[in-house]
Amino acid sequence: MPEPIPPAATGAPIDELLDLAVAGLGGKRREGQHAMARAVAVAIDAGEHLLVQAGTGTGKSLGYLVPAVHHAVSEDERVIVSTATLALQRQIITHDLPLVVTAVGPRLPRLPRVAVLKGWHNYLCLQKVAGGFPADEPGTLFDLPGDHAGAAEHPAPDDDPAAAPGRSGAAGRAANLGAQVVRAREWAQETESGDRDDLVPGVSDRAWRLVSVTSMECLGPKCPKITECFPNRARTLAKESDIVVTNHAMLGIAASGSPGVLPEHEVLVVDEAHELTDRVTAQATADLSVATIEHAARLARRHGGVATTDLDAASIAFGSVIAELPEGRFRDGLPSAAETAVAAVRDASRGLLSALKPVGAPPQAAADGGLKMAASAMTTLFETAERMAAGPRAGSDVLWCSRDDDGGSGRRGSGMSRLHAAPLAVNGLIRTHLLAGRSGVLTSATLALGGSFVPLARSLGLDPAAERTGDGVVPPSTTIQSTKVPAGGEDAPTPWRSLDVGSPFDYPRQAILYIAKRLPAPGREAATDAQLDEIATLITAAGGRTLGLFSSRRAATAVAEAMRERLDFPVLAQGDDQLPTLVRAFADDPATCLFGTLSLWQGVDVPGPSCQLVLIDRIPFPRPDDPVRSARSDAVEAAGGNGFMQVSATHAALLLAQGAGRLIRGTADRGVVAVLDPRLATARYGEFLARSLPDFWRTTDRAVAVAALERLAALA
User: Taking the model in full, what pTM does it have?
Assistant: First the structure.
């Protein structure tokens, strides 16, 4: 019989510690937050997995940080905390975690040790700054596949006219780039972390590339700067810490078969867990183009001093073949000609890789930055070509061809051709490399889709049959039976539980869900005349104050242009400026409307009267030609399941819930979520989608929505 966990481990001290942390914040007790903290403590102690849905306003970060810190220090077991966005990572590192340490630390056996860990490329490289790596060739400066975890969230700064007075066009951009690099080099002399986030104001990705390296390009122990190395220091500190805060991109690297990127840990907490599968998929996706082949060949010639005759010939043949391939997924693997061309690239790059890593090379070669760059690029090229040439073995990979937009013509699919390979499924990777042998706590404001945790649990590698049912409520003084998996693990899947702690918001009283049932179902048009009339009526009633969430940039732009002609309210559209600037302008002026696509669906937090109407133009199903999701849907169908419901409807439900969640951000917020797609009310799957949304008061009567918006506008 398993031994019972003592009552003290099940919630009593956790409640007291959480009260201390909340008091330090100047906040009030929230029952949902306490229920979450107790459940997290129980799951960690029992060695189970826990899915916790904690609505906006719950304070979920404290709900998991307090029990995580308590366990890490009390049991000497490291806890990894991962977020999807750098914004939340910054909040945890700079605000939430210091607050918890200050409030809770004196009640623990010792003070917690805390560290932050990011991808190698997020840290400045002192050896590169000192000239230990050759300069990137003009015209070849682009991000290559590799360890870029987290770097994508750094927006390029605005051009600084002062950096290049009197210059414009290419000359001005080059001067501005130079000024950014100079500033980064000067910063290298004063920074203690080398963390890109600490460089304020930031620099563009292009400039950062000139002062950083990927993990594959790093010289390692042979580097003259190894004792001062910023990423190496960060990893050493992480191995000595109790709580390590990282991001989903790093989890993606670990899930893809590089577990060494994270220090050993017994507990994994995943915030914004609804994004984990997409982040792991993105990290495990590779692409192959003529540009990547030529780049690797140039580096081999320039820094390795080797002839690239075979690779050059393979590149030409590859370019000729893929230029004729149709865009889209290859259901039965690469066409024969493409497979032959990719195999030629594989064979040529394998030979060059051997030449770039000769046996018996002198020791100084290991510290040659240029040679390491060449070997890194060739390794990536070989591994990608080898993966694609192998084909979709046992359904493991999805292969497809894409064609970039031609920047000059604006025609979709008229630019560079690329081959891509992505994993058909990542739930096995998550289960094996991230969750196996440890306790996993996965939390988000959106985890229960259609009223069930099973769709998200399945995508995260949890076995629906292993769910432990119950009401999910953990009283403050409950004794439970430990089910901790012994060292070495067991064949049976780790048990998991789910818990919805609700939200402090009174959704039925604070918000209306209006479904425009009278409108025709959306078609291929960016927006119909009926939709435009509906949008104009709703915005007028709201007095502006509108966040418009659209399924495509084309639709957002078309509606923005139409509303600018029809209405007197300021209308901003994604692409008019950097997103943070647009969001600030939207928040500062209640009359302003902001229209955009995916970044706005999940990345906007504007409480107060500036956002009282959220417009959603259509149910955000994935595109029918989305290669990965269509392949996953086909796989579900082949296994006897419902591919549409498990893939497309689940994807749409998740985005709808995230989009609708932009409306109510505080207890004083009021407003309307208007979905201009009648299928939400008329289709058989509509109720599944609607049950995924917050519990708004629901109507299909436009007059009701308009009257409510007019009353709110008058009060404002």
Answer: 0.87
